[in-house]
Amino acid sequence: MRFAMLMYPGPAAETEQTPVPKGPEGLKLLEDMMAFNQRMVDAGIMLGGEGLKPTRLGARVKFGPRGSTDIVDGPFTETKEVLGGYWIIEAASLAEAVAWARQAPCPAGEVIEVRPVWTPEDFGEEAAAKERAQIGQIEAQKRGG
């Protein structure tokens, strides 16, 4: 099963600085996070992950009736908890995914939410076959073919 581990770093997510403070303490946190990521890679469970910049630099697309859309530029003041980054992992169960999340080297106060990810198989074999074909096309494009 695939899981998203969603990191909520609190107010630090909205600062203009990188999420890792400058100096020895920040370098140690960065090294610990890189080591954590490497452990997940070595275990064969990490499929991807990235940190996110502040909402001030983003936008939201809000869908309305009859296909209309509204664009809301950041920052998103109505958001109480801002997503700061994520991992996509492959784990046998929610318990295993939570066990990995508990190992993340996060400072006190940060939160990691663990949620299952919908897969094409959840929607039936036809959807799964179509997604596999599309992924094949994407991979071919990446290779330049």
Features:
alpha+beta, 145 residues, four-stranded antiparallel sheet
Ordered list of secondary-structure elements with their pairings:
Layout: E1 2-8, H1 24-42, E2 46-51, E3 59-63, E4 69-73, E5 85-90, H2 94-101, E6 111-116, H3 125-142
Antiparallel strand pairs: 1-5, 1-6, 2-5, 3-4
- What is the CATH level 1 assignment? Alpha Beta
Largest sheet: number of strands, sense, barrel closure: 4 strands, antiparallel
Task: Find the CATH superfamily.
Answer: Dimeric alpha+beta barrel
Number of strands: 6
What is the number of domains?
1
Q: What string gives the helices and strands in order?
A: EHEEEEHEH
The separation of the N and C termini measures 30 Å
Total DSSP helices: 3
Mean pLDDT: 88
Second CATH tier, the architecture:
2-Layer Sandwich
Based on secondary structure, the structural category is alpha+beta
Can you walk me through this structure?
The protein has 145 residues and is an alpha+beta fold. Helix content is 31%, strand content 24%. It has helices at residues 24-42, 94-101, 125-142; strands spanning 2-8, 46-51, 59-63, 69-73, 85-90, 111-116. The strands form two sheets. Strands 2-5-1-6 form a four-stranded antiparallel β-sheet, with helices on one face. It has a two-stranded antiparallel sheet with strand order 3-4. β3 (59-63) and β4 form a beta hairpin. The radius of gyration is 18 Å and the shape is globular. The chain starts with a strand and ends with a helix. The model has no long low-confidence stretch (mean pLDDT 88).
